[in-house]
Amino acid sequence: MKRATLLLFVTLFAIAAHGQSMRDEIKANPNLAGGIYTAYMVTEHAVATPPRGFKPFYISHYGRHGSRYQTSQDKYDMPAVMLEQAAKDGKLTTLGLDLARRVRIIADDAHLRAGDLSARGEREQRGIAERMAKAYPEVFAGKNGDHITCFASPYVRSVVSMAAFTERLKELYPALELTRYASFHDIELTRPEKYMYTFYKEARKIAKEYQQQNTKDKDFICRLFNDYDYAAKLICQAYKSSNTTGFIGNMHDLAMIVQNFDTLPELHDIFTEEERYQMWHLFNIRRYLTYGPSIDYGDVRNQDAKVLLRDIIERADNVISGKDSNEVATLRFGHDSAIIPLLAILHAEGCDGRIAFSEIEKLPEVWCDSRITSMSVNVQFVFYRNKKGEVLVRMLHSEKDRRIPVKTDCYPFYKWEDFRAYCLKQCEPDAR
Which of 129, 100, 94, 142 has its CA nearest to residue 331? Predict the structure, then answer.
């Protein structure tokens, strides 16, 4: 089988991800310090020419909801009220006063919208759908069937993401027939978290304690307040804490989330480059310990992804065997808490780094949330078939090919029987 010619149209981010450290990437683009809050970075869909005679006929997909608001209203209201009180007391610097103004704009915009999808989030989903449809017209043009089954977790941001995605598909291919579900009945396919909470509290506690011990926020506070003792007392009261670290963490979250919107003021200027990087690093640790493939907690956490991966394999089997001969796509819309372990158990390149908490300072060398999961992050399995009935599959991570440890002589395509056997092995109870 001849090796496929692979033409990749990539963004500057994709290039940087292979040649720069996260410190360099964040310096070049502060939004990359957002981790899970990073807005989807639009790329041209990777173009790959399959071996002669193979044409796409089915797509299986899991995608995180699009860009959204913070899921907690307190993250908006608490700093807004606190800063306004400090302004009233005459305790803010010029930068602090301007920050209070900007945070109030952000908080007012977010009123009663906690967790909701943003307009950008809808555009992200429509864009992914459009690029998918245009890249694989053979899938959607009706020659292999015209039905798509869609599942969304029963949360507004996921349901609206599904609606935006499928609306765009219908605009491009009106003959498509859609069946859409958004129910707790299918929660193991859209938000698999049965094992997530086994060690979640323990992992989060360790990460939070580490964050508090390693956060250096006095200089940050002194840029915003003209009286440190006043600020420390106010912050501890507002955040019901014996230390001030909650405030800089809250402001980091706000500074990162605004990239998910079109008109909200930026907050990057309140941080130094070092503070921004350190806040990313500390939140990356928290995400890794609670969702990632860590040596300490990852094996249990990854069990949830096995249910999802089995579903991907079983539905593909049904299409390939002819049992579901009219099915051309299965679309799932959920959360980063499913994407992270799915990529980990597949051992997708750059997504499966394992490290113990005792070596956690080395984490940026092996696992970086901003590279693995953004808003609207998605995994696509595209299936190709020839007239002999041979099947190949290609895996994309946010519309870019991602290697997995399965032998192939035609990357980015894998023989289905090899890919299937590998995935089923990863689904075994003791598989890492």
Answer: 129
Burial 378-416, CB ≥16 within 10 A → b, else e: bbbbbbbbeeeeebbbbbbbbbbbbebebebebebbbbb
Q: Would you give the DSSP letter of residue 216?
A: -
Quote the radius of gyration of the chain (alpha carbons, Å).
23
Summarize pLDDT for 221-262 with one digit per residue, the tens.
999 999 999 999 999 999 999 999 999 999 999 999 999 999
Strand, helix or coil for residue 391:
strand
Among 165, 188, 191, CA closest to 40: 165
CA dihedral 143, 318, 402, 278 (to 10 degrees): 120
Residue 13: which domain range? 6-426
Distances, alpha carbon 198 to alpha carbons 156, 301, 355, in Å: 26, 8, 19
Q: Do the domain assignments include residue 231?
A: yes
Asked if residues 269 and 128 have their Cβ atoms less than 8 Å apart, the reply is: no
Note the pTM of the prediction, 2 decimals. Answer: 0.92
Site of tokens 């989330």: 257
Taken in order 36, 40, 41, 44, is the CA torsion positive or negative? positive
Looking at residue 9, what is its pLDDT? 30
CA distance 114 to 315: 34
Task: Indicate whether 431 belongs to any domain.
Answer: no
CA 420 – CA 109 distance, rounded (Å):
47
What are the phi and psi torsion angles at 261 (to 5°)? Answer: -130, 165
List, as one string, the DSSP characters of 11-72: -HHHHHHHHS-HHHHHHH-GGGGGGGGPPP---PPPEEPPSTT-EEEEEEEEEE--SB--S-
- Residue 338's identity, in one-letter code, is A
User: Residue 263's domain is classified under what CATH number?
Assistant: 3.40.50.1240
The answer to whether 178 and 166 have CB atoms below 8 angstroms apart is yes
Residue 320 corresponds to which tokens in the numbers above? 């390939």
pLDDT digits (tens, 9 = 90+) for 95-113: 999 999 999 999 999 999 9
Per the structure, the count of domains in the chain is: 1
Quote the DSSP letter at residue 164. H
Strand extents, DSSP E, 335-386 = 378-385
**Which pLDDT band, with edges at 50, 70 and 90, does 45 fall under?**
low
